[in-house]
Amino acid sequence: MNNRIKISVILVIIFSFFSCTTTKKVQVVKTITKIKKDTVYVNPLKNVSLIDYKSATPEGYVINNDYYPSVGKDFRQKFLIMHYTALDNAKSLMVLSERNVSAHYVVNNTDDNQINMLVSENERAWHAGVSFWDGRTNLNDSSIGIEIVNLGYESYPNYQIKKVAALAKDIIERYKIDPVNVLGHSDIAPQRKLDPGPQFPWKLLYEEYGIGAWYDDYTKDFYQNQFKEELKNDPSFIKQFQKDLALYGYEIIPTGIWDEQTKKVIKVFQMHFRPQIYDGILDAETWAILKALNLKYRAKS
């Protein structure tokens, strides 16, 4: 091979190499830019719409979106799930961004105006795990997860609740999430989870921000006066109570006995709606609260 041919071959190889490298798509990765007083600052996502319009780009064809959006559609995001991290700020962000668990948002416990976004709302975060609510399973597929930095036994400071409320209200209004689908991790996995715990202020979020579901006191009082203590060990009464829990949305098998699965469901129900006592034992108030909730949100019109 003479020198001219050799040079030509080398030039072709070099040109091919640079052509390949310049046509590769570059993935932008979030990076930690600084850490100050346990607060981790992550570089912001740019030019990303939270409910961005997505379209295929088939080679050689044009996608005509003149008829977008179709009338027959709704949002995939049906549920909003609250968690606590059981870790501090820095560890929460590390675990939720670097390991095989994630959430769409993390609300820190610092009195500032920052909320961390880890997963785009149009993508699936890994926060719910094995889960169930109102006939649906695998709620990662249809939910947005909010992790709140809290060790699990602490009260939630007011500035943190304000962040949670502002974030939740924004999400609920955009996706038209039903009040009964604003839930804790414990509600959708009562056999294994307790977060966001008994300190989480569900009642305050409902009364001050219109977030989530809550019962009416006058209806609860009416039912509480109807409760008959002597029925507590009647299998038909127990089975009906289990069916009422299932009607509201919980995963429970109506066995007619006070078994362990039922005790755990009662406990997380009490943590959500009567956190002063959450012993997993049925009493008149717990029974009446469930009746009032079902009348308000689950009664057929």
List the helices and strands and how they pair.
Elements: H1 3-23, E1 32-36, E2 39-42, E3 79-84, H2 89-98, E4 105-107, E5 116-117, E6 132-133, E7 136-137, E8 143-148, H3 158-175, E9 182-184, H4 185-188, H5 202-209, H6 217-224, H7 235-248, H8 260-273, H9 284-298
Parallel strand pairs: 3-8, 3-9, 4-8
Antiparallel strand pairs: 1-2, 4-5, 6-7
Helix pairs in contact: 6-9, 7-9
Q: Classify the beta-strand content into a percent band.
A: 5-15%
Could you tell me the number of beta strands?
9
Please mark out the parts with pLDDT under 50 across 5 or more consecutive residues, or reply none. Answer: 5-50
Q: How helix-rich are the residues, as a percent range?
A: 25-40%
Query: Largest sheet, order of strands side by side?
Result: 5-4-8-3-9
**Major sheet details:** 5 strands, mixed
SSE order, one letter for each helix or strand: HEEEHEEEEEHEHHHHHH
In DSSP terms (H or I, runs of 4 or more residues), the helix count works out at 9
Structural class: alpha/beta
Cα Rg = 25 Å
Averaged pLDDT, please? 87
End-to-end C-alpha gap: 88 Å
Shape designation: globular
What does this structure look like?
The protein has nine helices and nine strands. The protein is an alpha/beta fold and 301 residues long. Strands 5-4-8-3-9 form a five-stranded mixed beta sheet. Strands 1-2 form a two-stranded antiparallel ribbon. α7 packs across α9. The radius of gyration is 25 Å and the shape is globular.
